[in-house]
Amino acid sequence: HDVDIPTKEATFAMACFWSPDCIFGATPGVIRTRVGYSGGTDPNPVYRKLGDHTESIRIEYDPKAISYEKLLDIYWKNHDPTSKMKKQYTSLIFYHDEEQKKLAEDTFKNQEKLLGSLVTEILPATTFYDAEDYHQKYRLQQHPWLCKAINLHSGNDFKRSHLAARLNGYVYGQGDMKQFNEEFEKLGIDENVADFVRTLIIKYEGQGLTC
Ligand code: MHO
Q1: Residues designated catalytic
Q2: pLDDT tens digits for range 21-30
C-alpha cells in the first residue's frame, strides 16, 4: 500500500477534518494523509479534550506531481475562511518552510481582496498529534468489507497507506469515475473491489461534502 518516493509535508486546518481527508486524499500527487490536532500548547490533546488545539490535516505530497500553490488553492476553495469558529474548527495554515510561508501569505492577501477580512492564521508547523484511529480515513472506515478486502486493519495502516488515502476520497464522492478507472490498476486493487468502489462513486457523485 505504501508508495516509496520523496515527499514534502503540508498542514492545514479547515473545520471538521473528515472532509479535507477525503478531498486531499483523492487529489493526484497526494501520497498520504493523516488527521490530528495542532496549533495549541496544551499537551496530548484527544478528541473529547482538545484544549487549545484545532482539527488539522497533515498531507504528504509528491512535489513533482503537485505544487504547494495547488494545495493552497484546494484549501481556500473548500472552507469558509471568513467565519469565526470555535478553536476546534478554526482556519489555519501551518507552514513547513519559508517558501510555504510566503505562498500562504500571498494567497491570503488575494483571498482577503476577494472575501474581505479572514480569520485564517498562518503559523509555523509544530507538534501534530495524530487523532484517534477511528478518525483516520473516517469515510473509508464506514465500509468494513472494503477495508478488509484491501488489508487495512490497524490505525497505522490507515495513516500510512496511499491506497487508503485515495479510496477515502473516492468512497465519498471525491475524484471521479474517470480518474478512478485510470488509476485503479496502478493502486493494485482487483475488479471486485473496484466494482464496490464504483457503486459508491456513483452514489456520492456531486452530492457535496457535509463534514
Ligand atoms: N458532527 C461530527 C463532527 C466530527 S468532527 C471530527 C461529530 O460530532 O461526531 O469534528
Answers
A1: 16
A2: 999 999 999 9
